[in-house]
Amino acid sequence: MNDPHLWWYVSRASAMIAWALLTTSVLWGILLSTRVMRRVDNPAWLQDLHGYLGGTSLVMVGLHMVSLMIDSWLSFTVAEVLVPFATAFKPLPVALGILAFYLLVAVQGSSLMLKRLPRKFWKGLHYASYATLLLVSFHAGFTGTDVGSLWYRIVSIALILLAALAVILRIIAGKRSGSARQADAAPGGAPVQPVPRTMVVASATGLAHGIVGIRLKLPDGGMLPVWQPGSHVTLHLPNGLQKQYSLCGDPANRNQYDVAVLRTSQSSGGSSWIHENLVPGMSLPVSGPMNHFELEPAADYLFIAGGIGITPITAMIQSLPAGRAWRLVYAGRSRQTMAFVAELEAEYPQRMIVHASDENVGGLDLDVILGTVTAQVYCCGPESLMNAVAARVPAGRLHLERFVPLERSARPAAPIQVACRKSRLDFTVPAEESLLDALESHGVPILGSCRKGICGTCEVRVVEGTPEHLDSVLDDAEKDALGVMYPCVSRSLSASLVLNI
């Protein structure tokens, strides 16, 4: 530690490592956006690694700045490493490096607050990583003491070429997804409105008894927005109903959306209409995708599906790499009523248990299945199955997607004073009117779909006030942490609410 050259070496090494990590992080992020790396591992793990690379590069930059202050030769002051043009030593290149540092802090900070920031704002801020990489390249090229060295030239050229490759990939990816962006954007660059896109039924085929598989594509055959396993879309049917269905195709295929629809005896008219009237060539407005059943990174997974609950699970399984540890328990009345059962058994015979009621005397023994399990458990199916699983699995390892709302007790409804910050509206919601209906009647740009508190379409951010969560989308603690509520069924514990809409 007393070697006068030690901190000079630390400064050089940390700077080069930070540059390399930042370049890799940017390139990795672009590979994620283009879905090139999908077969390597599940998306959540890849995104975490992308964040770790960026975070580690920031740590290395911090070490570089500290070592500049400790080094006896340079002896930078705190102001000189934090304030542009405060130093007489190559002021412009040093200022570029300081600016790159602040941009990197902003990008990493936005990543930590991803779920709390508007998606467009986060995305725009994230593009600053390209500017950061450019500034770092200029900073390193004009301030480095090893600029003339062969090894420095080799490393610099390699990093600059990687950065150029990242930009090229971003441009190509942008062109490929151009049609999808155009479908989402309003003409003339106007603010995007929450309206569904028109899609065409490419095919409608039987997957099992009482289940029809529907493939949807854009009329021009263009690319669709990226979606993650667990996502669902909303079909706007001609009979006026809006029904949510989980995407069950391959998340890497952006040319189509696949859903499976079970015809139920208690249908409100959605599944019956689809089975009786939907044919290839028909156009349907489709909203989404949305996701409140995300596949989180884990070393081991246990998937439990009941009946049509297999639909989101199939997308999760397809997104996992071959070496990832997982098992599937698939229950149903009979194999004839279980979609995808033959395909799944053929491809993963050692990873799944099929429990068809007509083949088994006893019911599904969840005590045996879940007794020693330490994996993350993802369950989708009938309410009775999910309640039974929830009673046996700790909340920290349990992930559910519900088809019907939970029965939740609520205090007697009272009027609510509501302020919409972006719309600059203030109004009172009567006790007999839902918050969503009131927002719609006042012209606030918000979409409602299921109106039962299960789809999450009407999500809105809460700025002030305490919501009374009566929905079944997320855990109440998670909603409070994210600062969101679902006004189709939820109300307010406080006399007033301020909403960011």
Question: Can you put this structure into words, describing what you see?
Answer:
The protein contains 15 helices and 18 strands. It has 501 residues and is an alpha/beta fold. The chain folds into 4 domains: 171 residues; 95 residues, Elongation Factor Tu (Ef-tu), domain 3 (Beta Barrel), CATH 2.40.30; 102 residues, Nucleotide-binding domain of ferredoxin-NADP reductase (FNR) module (Rossmann fold, 3-Layer(aba) Sandwich); 84 residues, Beta-grasp domain (Ubiquitin-like (UB roll)). The strands form 4 sheets. The chain has a 6-stranded antiparallel sheet with strand order 4-3-6-1-2-5, with helices on one face. The longest helix is centred in the first third of the chain and has 29 residues. The radius of gyration is 27 Å and the shape is globular.
